[in-house]
Amino acid sequence: ALAAHLERLTKLQSLNLSNNGLDPPSAMAVATALTTITSLTSLDVRKNWLDLASAMALAAVTSLTSLDIRGMDLEDGPWPVMSFLLPRASQLKVDMFGDVKLVSGVGAKGTSCMTLSGGKGLGPIGALRLAGLLREVPAPLLVGLDLRGNGIGPDGITALAAHLERLTKLQSLNLSNNGLDPPSAMAVATALTTITSLTSLDVRKNWLDLASAMALAAVTSLTSLDIRGMDLEDGPWPVMSFLLPRASQLKVDMFGDVKLVSGVGAKGTSCMTLSGGK
Question: Residue 9, SS3?
Fold first, then answer.
């Protein structure tokens, strides 16, 4: 009943229908009505009962920069919705609880949210799905990719690395606490050499060795590299040797945490930990 008259609200910018028992037919009716309201930028339909078709219909409302469909298990549904939204996204974040956030547009005009099935992070299988998404869907505006703590593992990281070069505008990449091993870290390093816009890389709490840490340090566009939380034995010293010519400040604290600020203008900070944490 409400949907039948929404089109009369010609100046509407924000609509919140969360936790209202929407089912697929009523959500489709809302989606149809909203296509006529070009001023609408934000829609919250959390904690309802959508299916894939109705979620996709809402995502297709082209005026939206913020769409919240969290709190529903759409099974495979989030992936087609992500596929639809990714070309408009400047940032993509997936956390350990399966919450997905896509920031729309270069100016961060809005954020769309959804939840992966099961309420868990990507894991290896989800990483393969994301790799396929990056392969098939252009993401020309994506400047930030944050996948910290998703338990992706070496195979998932290697699959993702094969398609990172498509993210030609990427500036920041966070793969911390994801089970990277030396071969998968080397695959990431190889991919990142082609992305000249990348300035920040966080690979804390993984399983790198000296060769893979040096390969990542050799990505010349980086001003911030974080390899803390790993005992590289003698490894930090060659990495410091590599980064020192670009550093304007060097700090080593009592816990062995090393920080090198890059460039006179302090454009970024690289971090590592001395062996033994002292």
Answer: coil
